[in-house]
């Protein structure tokens, strides 16, 4: 298990690296995270939903993703509630207090006793462990949230069930790494502390020799070996887990005539923003995130992304003036693209008669596409293959709500809408929307050719990076000592 001193210390990326390393070394690994809180999710081949990070780790391991890799997924609706997805299917919404202290979920306004989540995640792990070896587990947030220890499903209690060797990952870039690592270990019970077999320091910047003394000091005060110090990297592209990293994304218009400005509307409940990673890497494009009216009006292409709360974000777009700015830009000939919840917003109306998303029952859409959407209890989750300009393309759907059209992709005058996540990972789609603007060079961007080839290269680069700075042989010794 790769556990953390906090959120965003790099556990997901380190776990993905070891999924690829174990695969390269001839093993048959699989990822596992008992409980994930994320808005970036993915559809399994069976049409069920898991966290995006475990889908990425499964890719790194070279195996199809499965709900047993992430049996419990929490998708935030607001600061206080989340949708609970168990074994790939939504159970209902949860209030944070009810979930953590009462084990309840909300459905139709009523509070219902939830299933035995601990038993469910343990069973998922046991099924996975019967098919793969080793299991590369990931913790969540900090392992030292002692006020929630009795309800812990994903960190040390899960490690105890799995009899896992725990490697603690600390982020030196944010500062305070000595206190966070030492405190995380010392706040464990003696029984849990015995499971922590090593420390990895992540996101180091500068001359590695400057941390030699720090490494020795950490080992002395923690009595746990430091297995590696991994430098920060900028040239490896791995899908990110959630919007915690969104603040690091570009938010600036480009003044270069050789680039198209692509504005992704920054929604409050934005989800699956990995949809734009391939387009963001295209040198012909300056992709940025904004809810600034002037930026929207100056962009060449405007994208409305997915959202966990379509009606709430649609209302906010009307309040902050972005809706009007998008319509003005469209009238001026700018291309507008909507994906998933963004697609729903581009229609004529969005209705939620059962209050599935919240208290807003109905809103007019932006009116750029001839569809009407109604929110329903049933959730669509599936992988899809589709034709675009005569070429085979791939993506996946994860959405609440049904629109009154059978078209998987809907196009009108310089406006495209689709429920397909991964739509913009396909080279024919990218070439079409850039060609439509006529402002960029006609030759194709090589890295947009095949997203799977690109991903495989990135996983290999990540594995090589981690191998260089982590004592892999020591980790194998730790694993073999408990066989």
Describe the protein's topology.
Layout: E1 2-4, H1 11-24, E2 30-32, E3 35-37, E4 41-43, E5 49-51, H2 52-61, E6 72-76, E7 81-86, E8 89-95, H3 96-102, E9 104-107, E10 110-113, H4 117-129, E11 135-137, H5 156-162, E12 166-171, H6 177-186, H7 190-193, E13 196-204, H8 212-222, E14 226-231, E15 260-265, E16 270-271, H9 277-280, E17 285-290, H10 293-298, E18 301-304, E19 306-307, H11 310-320, H12 322-331, E20 335-339, H13 341-345, E21 349-351, E22 362-364, E23 372-388, E24 391-403, E25 409-412, E26 415-418, H14 427-437, H15 451-469, H16 472-481
Parallel strand pairs: 1-12, 2-11, 3-6, 12-13, 13-14, 15-17, 15-18, 18-20, 20-26, 21-23
Antiparallel strand pairs: 4-5, 6-7, 7-8, 9-10, 16-19, 21-22, 23-24, 25-26
Helix pairs in contact: 1-2, 1-15, 6-8
Total beta-strand segments: 26
**What integer is the average pLDDT?**
90
Strand order of the largest sheet: 17-15-18-20-26-25
Poorly predicted spans: 444-448
Assign the structural class, choosing from mainly alpha, mainly beta, alpha/beta, alpha+beta, or little secondary structure. Answer: alpha/beta
Sheet-strand content, in percent, reads 25-35%
Describe the structure.
It is a single chain. It is built from 16 helices and 26 strands. The two termini are 15 Å apart. With 483 residues, the protein is an alpha/beta fold. The strands form eight sheets. Strands 17-15-18-20-26-25 form a six-stranded mixed sheet, with helices on both faces. Strands 1-12-13-14 form a four-stranded parallel sheet, sandwiched between helices. Strands 3-6-7-8 form a four-stranded mixed sheet. Helix content is 31%, strand content 28%. Helix 8 links the parallel strand 13 and strand 14. About 1% of the residues have low confidence. The relative contact order is 0.12. Helix 1 packs parallel to helix 2, helix 1 packs across helix 15 and helix 6 runs parallel beside helix 8.
